[in-house]
Write a structure and sequence with these properties.
Layout (H helix, E strand, L loop, with lengths): L7 E9 L12 E2 L4 E9 L6 E8 L3 H4 L7 E8 L9 E4 L7 E13 L2 E9 L1 H8 L2 E8 H10 L10 E3 L5 E9 L1 H10 L15 E5 L2 E5 L1 H5 L11 E5 L21 H7 L1 E8 L4 H7 L3 E8 L4 E8 H4 L48 E6 L18 H16 L2 E8 L9 E6 L5 H4 L9 E13 L2 E10 L13 H5 L9 E2 L4 E2 L1
Parallel strand pairs: 10-13, 14-20, 16-18
Antiparallel strand pairs: 1-2, 1-5, 3-4, 3-21, 4-8, 5-6, 5-7, 7-8, 9-11, 12-13, 15-19, 16-17, 19-22, 20-21, 21-22, 23-24
Length: 506
């Protein structure tokens, strides 16, 4: 039974040498009493699990085991609760067939005559397997089927772990030219179109490992289910001075009861900071997040086609962190579509351009072709005329996620959380409670997707450093519904050039 939030269960940490043995025990060496700190890292953009173990060694394992880079670590970490299942724990034991593999030793020091301190770096088997093998093969069919094949193929990743995947709506023949398995999967991910409610919109997949297995899926699938329902938040966190949620209601559990002290401790945020609390408009403009022109050069027909991507026109075609089918609150883009300059929208004499209307902010050239494999499809396995549109959408969606509002917070360790989970975060508004009604900040509170987790066990406590993002806002900014002339005034008379040699105006 847990005594406090942050209490944990780590019964043993076994290390096995290249013979599968310990110093005295043929089943390995239990080094639990030597562990100073255990760290485990996972993330949406990390394709395999890694970690580190700080050890205070009084048995000289480096020489006597010995430690030389082919050892296996076996352990099971869980948040201590009254009861929990295997899905609530982080299980890297020999029993599951998924131990961690040591690949490096660093920071060796000797504080006294009988102790040496050092750090063991470890990773999942797939991390090393990816470096040791190459894929040279062609695949025909859906992209997720090709990924499944590479993932479990004994000549490639040869993984025995769970793969949580989302079916793709496109299929094609793809030739993998001597690439590492993960690079091959990443290439397939770029060409994958998600199968969703309407089988339209969205492009590009993520491939990553968490403590529960591997995932191959679109970002949209993290936000909503295939039926379009909002994915339920795995946990609610709050950094406020009164026990209320973002709607001003007292914080209760799922059964409508007051939280007990330990469960309330799991929801409390010890500290937080925003790593990217404002969308960088300049960077997103250059990256093509808002407006993007893709020129597709068809090598077969010797022709080209221009497609324009418009952020605001496309926003509601895909799911986002604050997508809300019930419309309890109106989520929207992270930037308004109000006019930002005097330029007129082509074909509309009454509208001036917003950030999404400058489609030449980024111009990309991408080649495509038909009949490479005797099929009339393009790069994505669909009609070749869609390649430019899909490419622009894929790049913009990836940018909007990476450049979204990014939050980092420290919380009590919860072994059931993993990268890709939805969480809710409430932070008290800086206005006084009388003016704000005691409600959390409407801009930064809301739904987030966990992108990275550092699990850390030290000083008899299990804590997590979590990074999470949101690619929109819970309450839409709306539009000014005004011409830029009404916002900034009449355009000033153009300044004429000044010839400094003749001191005259031209």
């Amino acid at each position: 039974m847990a005594e406090f939030a942050g209490d944990y269960d780590l019964q043993y940490v076994h290390i096995r040498n290249h013979r599968g043995e310990g110093l005295l025990d043929t089943d390995g060496e239990n080094i639990s009493d030597m562990v100073v700190e255990l760290n485990i890292y996972e993330g949406l953009y990390n394709h395999a699990m890694t970690g580190s173990l700080v050890i205070a060694d009084t048995r000289n394992l480096i020489s006597n085991l010995p430690i030389q880079g082919t050892e296996r670590l076996s352990f099971r970490l869980a948040t201590k609760l009254d009861s929990y299942s295997s899905e609530d724990s982080i299980d890297f034991t020999e029993a599951t067939g998924n131990p961690m593999h040591v690949y490096k030793l660093t920071n060796k020091e000797q504080p006294n005559d009988t102790t040496q301190v050092y750090t063991l770096h470890f990773c999942s088997k797939e991390f090393l397997r990816n470096m040791r093998t190459k894929v040279s093969k062609s695949y025909t069919g859906r992209m997720d089927e090709a990924v499944n094949s590479i993932f479990k193929d004994p000549e490639y990743l040869a993984s025995k772990k769970k793969l949580f995947f989302q079916k793709t709506r496109n299929q094609d023949k793809v030739v993998i030219p001597n690439m590492t398995p993960i690079d091959a999967i990443k290439m397939l991910g770029k060409r994958s179109l998600p199968s969703n409610l309407n089988d339209t919109g969205g492009a590009g997949y993520l491939f990553y490992e968490t403590t529960k297995g591997f995932h191959f899926r679109s970002f949209e699938s993290l936000c909503v289910t295939k039926s379009g329902e909002q994915v339920k938040a795995k946990q609610k966190f709050r950094y406020i001075y009164v026990p209320v949620d973002r709607f001003g209601h007292e914080v209760l559990d799922d059964e409508g009861k007051k939280l007990d002290k330990i469960m309330e401790g799991f929801q409390s945020v010890e500290q937080y900071r925003f790593l990217n609390n404002f969308h960088d408009v300049a960077a997103n403009t250059m990256l093509g997040t808002y407006g993007h022109t893709v020129i597709t050069h068809n090598l077969y027909s010797k022709s080209y086609k221009k497609d324009e991507y418009h952020y605001h026109n496309s926003f509601n075609k895909t799911a986002h962190t604050d997508t809300d089918p019930d419309r309890r609150y109106k989520g929207g883009p992270a930037i308004t579509d109000s006019p930002v300059d005097y330029d007129q929208v082509e074909g509309n004499a009454y509208k001036q351009k917003g950030v999404s209307d400058f489609t030449e902010s980024r111009i990309s050239l991408t080649p495509t072709s038909q009949f490479v494999h005797n099929e009339g499809t393009g790069n994505y396995g669909v009609d070749v005329v869609q390649d430019g549109k899909i490419e622009g959408e894929r790049i913009a969606l990836a940018n909007s996620v990476r450049a979204g509002t990014k939050l980092q917070m420290t919380v009590k360790g919860q072994s059931w959380l993993q990268s890709g989970d939805v969480i809710e975060f409430d932070v008290q508004s800086v206005e006084n409670r009388e003016n704000s009604g005691g409600r959390p900040d409407s801009r930064y509170s809301g739904r987030y997707i966990i992108t990275d987790i550092r699990h850390q066990v030290s000083n008899d406590e299990y804590i997590q450093t979590i990074e999470c993002i949101k690619d929109g806002v819970a309450n839409s900014y709306g539009s000014a519904n005004k011409a830029y002339t009404n916002i900034a005034g009449e355009e000033k008379r153009p300044v004429t050039p000044h010839d400094i040699e003749n001191d005259t105006y031209s």
